[in-house]
Design goal:
Residues 470-756 form the Reverse transcriptase domain. This protein is of the alpha+beta class and 1173 residues long.
């Protein structure tokens, strides 16, 4: 800034101040000082150097302050009594900001800006020139005050730099390392003056006011400062999270400074944007703001104190507060460490239990998953409530109406039916039955699982022997065989209602084997004599079950709707069907169908011993009842129960078919087939051509049900009457005031799981099914299942929701593809699938390098083809009529279906692999797998055997697909601008995924070495264990090998140099293993290169230790010295030569799986650390 006229400058300033506050001057000893309110307010907002400044010190750009000569107003001269304002004798001298500034000015002047040694006497003389009254100050005290000013930051760094600049100009020196900012288009700050008026009116020494310098940028904030600021922010964020905002320390006010503004800008633009997207509630936002402000204050040199109003007597000593803070911080750290460990252990335990339960019983796991997702509420019913309710059903015996005429008619029709052949139970039959059971299905009261009976084959002969005895002499059956454990599963979210539970009974394993042998023989008798009606598909083997009934029903509804034909239907559902059928009728129906009388006698005796214990097991607790006698109904969970129940309802089909009533399925214009009903277990649907016929069919069903003492569940019984395309309202009176109501125009009925009105509601069903599928998929991904089990669960728990509709609901390829896209995005959301990874791998089998997810489009085509072939090859009149009538009424379009062969799974998989291989980037890995020296099956074994976390599995596949966001990928694949393709560690060009996994020289001595040692440790421990050099088995990641292990037969070195008489450049293999008796030594060396370097690494290992092998053979007098390379690719690819190496060392052939898992885990960890993921 140019020189200015001092006199005119000062006079103008004084006149301005007088005009603002003409009466504000106060006369004091030594001169009067202007103290206007405006000036004081501005001073309060300025730098923390204080309200008083040294003569001519530039405290900020464009601001000049002058201080009168003489001592500060609040410090008495040395020759006067030194007392405090309270009148007490002052013990210590008070140093004002003016005095501190002058101390530093004197120090910089006498040391020539710290370039010459300090002369204490000169420092004291210069100080006393300005403050002559303080003769009691010594040289040492002045030096100590200088040190205190700097260490305690009484004067900010900004003001010290300004002071240095001023002293340098006074000394005519050029001060180094000062950065000047050229400021353009910016208005200069208003000049602020604090002058002594009396001196201002007199002639002034023009040398007392130096030339105004240009603005100086004194705050240079580096990347280190930014990292420090972010670290401080993270620390405070952790400290104040979950703390009540009103309990946090109050943030002090801050004076404006450039450093404060710069730190605030950095926090706002560079740091906070990283954290704000992750906040979840308003309290989090508040905490982030508070922590950011506190971090800026601390980084700027400020302090945050928790000020509380306390009486002096309660004030703690500083040392006490320091110790308490230290103890509190230590306890907080320990608490956080312990809490983190507890959380980690809890997750690990939860993961282990969930996977164990999934592997043991998937059905039980899915049941718990469903219960947890629905979150049942309310208290459980009491033991008395469940006993009373279920006893009223099971323990009240009833008999069927023996005088019914239709029973006699059925018996007359079956008079010539041959009697069932006597059953012969052999050990082969027992073995055949037990072979089809699940190993670890829930055991009954006896506690024996199917696995034990299946594996203990020696018992089969004895089991068959006793079963035969039971048939001949039922009284020999022990009572415990008829005991069951009935688990009540909730059917709704309200748990307190005992009627809203489904009973599933776990029976003794041997009881179920016995009834399974009997059911097999009875079914053969029923099938040979064609006793079951074709309308019943509840227990028919090789049928399509519900799907078959839904397809037939769809053809009927579509034909009626398209041709505007009248159709009258009724949906019948029994109340507690399995639990209410009388025992007398169950025995009578066996007699009607001429089952072997010995079997009937044995079953009658067993029924007399039936009893069960009820149990509810929920998160709210466990309720267990006393044993309840079962004198009505049959167990749900027994092999014989479905067939027995279908036989109990089978006479109804015969009676309904005799009427000749029903809906006419027309085909070929003149031909038709009459259908009166469809049955699936207890779900019955009646069809009629007019209302009168339907009323008659309902009367027959009502009479039959009443005779066998079974009642309708009126809340699930409905009528659907369609006349000329319109739904008409009508009802059916059952008597006693019970009426079956009809559906209205916009109502639907859920028949066999699918909603229908005039026809199936395809759009609504697809939307609901898709929603349920995504919900189940999300619940699975939220669980702790490993990668393999997760995709198994998706295939068996989520996808069946959609596949159940294949053949009945019309799905387009686009709709199925959209579901698969939604599946992939959901997997990506839970970090299970990289969005850029090869989509073909998701649906490939795991032994082919995929993840085993079912391809919905292929499954749809496969099921459509299977259903078409099933209907085309059925010989019954109903099926033939449906085939001819299905003119695009269903997705099968049976009228135009042809008998062609669908491509097999093998062909489909081959096409998928070819599609994967053709991709430029993704196809590199399958190309590597197809090399002749690679064992493809072994290379993919980790996908099915390693049991990796879901996220780790997906991350490793993305590494193999080379879609990790390395700088090379970002620059050349993603085409991101301003990306330098240079390794962030070694700074070499080309940061590819291959470079990160096995090519970075900086990672070689650390991360690569750790991965290498993990593999070597597995080999070392296995050799030590097999050779009895070590007995304890430790997880390989905790195993610490000893340098030398030796006994009378073997010697094993770990990473030990071998001394030779000739200089050998490579004399330190990873392991040296010697079999003393055979004078045989193995030099074992591990290598983990990239896949394309497998062969070269193998050859390098052999040539590298050839010289050492010759020396060892000569010096150690060995018969043979073999070099054994252990080579695995960094991505887990297994060369065929690895099997030969393991075989040569007599190690287990499947040990490569453990080696592969160790490599895969370490590679994933290396990439994560390298990319800070």
């Amino acid at each position: 800034m140019d020189q200015i006229d001092v006199n005119s400058f000062v006079q103008t300033a004084v006149d301005k101040l007088r005009s603002i506050a003409p009466n504000s001057a106060k006369n004091k000893p030594g001169g009067a000082e202007l103290q206007t309110d405006s000036v004081r307010n501005r001073l309060d907002e300025q730098s923390d150097a204080g309200k008083d400044g040294a003569n001519g010190v530039f405290l900020r750009t464009g601001t000049i302050r002058r201080q009168r000569n003489g001592p500060a107003e609040d410090v008495l001269p040395a020759d006067q009594p030194t007392t405090t304002k309270a009148g007490k004798v002052r013990q210590r001298m008070k140093w004002t900001d003016t005095m501190n500034l002058h101390v530093m000015r004197c120090y910089y002047t006498t040391t020539n800006l710290e370039t010459t040694p300090l002369v204490r006497s000169e420092l004291l003389k210069m100080f006393l020139r300005k403050f002559p009254d303080y003769t009691n100050i010594t040289e040492q005290r002045l030096v100590d005050q200088k040190r205190i000013i700097i260490t305690k930051k009484y004067i900010s760094e900004l003001h010290l730099e300004e002071l240095k600049h001023e002293v340098a100009e006074e000394l005519n020196l050029s001060q180094p390392n000062l950065a000047f900012d050229e400021i353009s288009n910016e208005k200069e700050p208003e000049t602020e003056i604090n002058l002594d008026i009396n001196q201002a009116t007199n002639q002034l020494d023009t040398q007392s006011i130096p030339t105004l310098p240009a603005r100086v940028e004194l705050t240079q904030i580096t990347d280190i400062d930014e990292k420090h600021l972010e670290t401080e922010f993270q620390t405070l964020l952790i400290e104040y999270t979950n703390m009540n905002p009103i309990c946090r320390p109050k943030l002090p006010k801050q004076n404006n400074s450039r450093k404060l503004i710069r730190y605030t800008k950095i926090m706002d633009e560079n740091i906070l944007p990283k954290y704000l997207p992750h906040i979840t509630n308003f309290l989090d936002l508040h905490t982030h703001i508070y922590a950011a402000a506190a971090a800026i204050i601390k980084a700027s040199g400020g302090r945050i104190q928790n000020i509380e109003r306390k009486h002096n007597k309660d004030q703690k000593e500083p040392w006490e507060m320091r110790l308490e803070i230290g103890i509190a911080n230590t306890l907080k750290q320990k608490l956080k460490a312990k809490a983190g460990r507890i959380r980690r252990y809890r997750e690990s335990t939860q993961r282990r239990k969930q996977n164990m339960k999934f592997n043991t019983s998937q059905r039980a796991y899915y049941r718990n998953l469903k219960i947890n997702s629905n979150q049942p509420v309310g208290p459980l019913p009491t033991e008395e409530e469940i006993e009373n309710y279920w006893s009223s059903i099971w323990s009240q015996p009833v008999n069927h109406n023996t005088d019914s005429t239709w029973i006699r008619d059925i018996e007359a029709e079956l008079f010539h039916l041959p009697t069932m052949e006597p059953i012969t139970i052999t050990s082969d039959l027992v073995a055949e039955v037990i072979r089809l059971t699940q190993n670890w299905k829930a055991a009954g009261p006896d506690g024996i699982h199917n696995f034990w009976v299946k594996r203990l084959k020696s018992t089969h002969t004895y089991i068959a022997k006793y079963f035969t005895t039971f048939i001949e002499s039922p009284e020999t059956i022990p009572e415990f065989l008829g005991r069951g454990n009935t688990y009540l599963l909730p059917k709704s979210e309200r748990l307190n209602n005992p009627t809203k539970y489904r009973p599933i009974t776990c029976l003794c394993t041997l009881y179920k084997i016995l009834t399974a042998c009997i059911a097999k023989s009875i079914y053969k008798h029923v099938e040979d004599n064609k006793l079951l009606s074709e309308e019943q598909k509840g227990c028919v083997k090789k049928s399509q079950g519900c799907k078959e009934q839904l397809i037939i029903d769809s053809v009927i509804l579509e034909q009626a709707a398209n041709k505007r034909r009248n159709i009258y239907t009724a949906f019948i559902d029994y109340k507690k069907a399995f639990d209410s059928v009388p025992h007398s009728w169950l025995l009578k129906v066996l007699q009607i169908y001429k089952i072997d009388h010995k079997i009937i006698n044995m079953l009658q005796h067993l029924m007399s011993t039936w009893n069960t214990v009820l149990e509810i097991n929920q998160n709210q607790g466990i309720v267990i009842s006393q044993p309840i006698s079962v004198q009505r109904g049959i167990f749900q969970g027994d092999s014989l129960s479905p067939l027995w129940f279908c036989l109990a309802l089978n006479p109804l089909s015969s009676i309904l078919n005799k009427t000749g009533y029903g809906f006419h399925i027309k085909y070929d214009k003149t031909q038709h087939h009459v259908i009166s009903h469809l049955m699936y277990m207890d779900d019955i649907k009646l069809f009629a051509g007019n209302e009168k016929q339907l009323q008659h069919l309902l009367e027959i069903t009502k009479t039959f049900s009443k005779d066998i003492q079974m009642s309708f569940g009126l809340d699930k019984c409905k009528l659907l009457n369609i006349k000329q395309g319109r739904i008409i309202s009508s009802g059916f009176d059952l008597g006693d005031g019970d009426i079956i109501e009809s559906l209205e125009e916009h109502e639907t009925y859920k028949y066999l799981g699918l909603a229908q009105g005039k026809r199936l509601q395809h759009k609504d069903i697809k939307e609901k099914i898709t929603s349920i599928y995504i919900s189940r998929l999300t619940n699975i991904l939220k669980s702790k299942l490993n990668g393999k089990n997760t995709f198994t669960a998706i295939n068996s728990y989520a996808i069946p929701i959609i596949s159940y509709t294949f053949g009945t609901i019309k799905w387009t390829k686009t709709e199925l593809e959209n579901i698969q896209i939604k599946t992939r995005t959901t997997l990506t959301k839970f970090r299970a699938h990289h969005p850029k990874a090869a989509v073909e791998r998701l649906t490939l089998p795991r032994n082919k390098g995929g993840r085993g997810l079912i391809d919905l489009r292929f499954l749809h085509a496969k099921q459509i083809y299977g259903l078409q072939q099933y209907f085309l090859h059925q010989a019954s009149g109903l099926h033939r009529a449906v085939v001819r009538a299905d003119n695009k009424h269903t997705p099968l379009d049976l009228q135009h279906a042809v008998d062609i062969r669908l491509p097999s799974d093998v062909i489909y998989e081959r096409e998928k692999v070819e599609e994967w291989t053709r991709k430029v980037l993704h196809g590199r890995f399958p190309h590597e797998l197809n090399q002749t020296y690679v064992d493809q099956d072994a290379s993919n074994k980790w996908l099915s055997q390693a049991d990796l976390f879901l996220e780790t599995e997906g991350f490793m596949l993305s590494i193999q697909d080379q879609v990790i966001a390395t700088r090379n990928y970002r620059k050349f694949i993603l085409k991101e601008p301003n990306v330098v393709d240079q390794c962030r560690r070694c700074h070499e060009p080309g940061e590819t995924i291959q470079h990160v996994t096995a090519g970075c020289r900086v990672l070689a001595p650390t991360s690569y070495l750790q991965r290498h040692d993990q593999v070597a440790k597995i080999i070392h421990q296995k050799l030590a264990t097999l050779c009895h050099l070590k007995e304890d088995i430790t997880p390989y990641y905790r195993y610490e090998p000893e340098n030398v292990l030796e006994n009378a037969h073997f010697k094993l070195y770990w990473n030990r140099s071998i001394l030779t008489d000739k200089t050998t450049p490579h004399n330190r293999p990873d392991l040296t293993f010697t079999i003393k008796e055979r004078a045989l030594t193995y030099l074992i060396d591990v290598g983990i290169p990239n896949t394309h370097n497998l062969q070269s690494t193998w050859s390098e290992k052999l040539s590298k230790y050839t010289a050492l092998a010759e020396q060892v053979k000569s010096l150690w007098k060995q018969n043979e010295v073999n070099i054994v390379p252990i080579i695995i690719s960094s991505t887990g690819v297994i060369p065929k030569a690895l099997h030969h190496s393991l075989k040569k060392l007599d190690l287990p052939p499947l040990l490569y799986i453990q080696l592969q898992k160790a490599v895969v885990l370490q590679t994933a960890a290396i990439v994560r650390r390298h990319l800070n993921l």
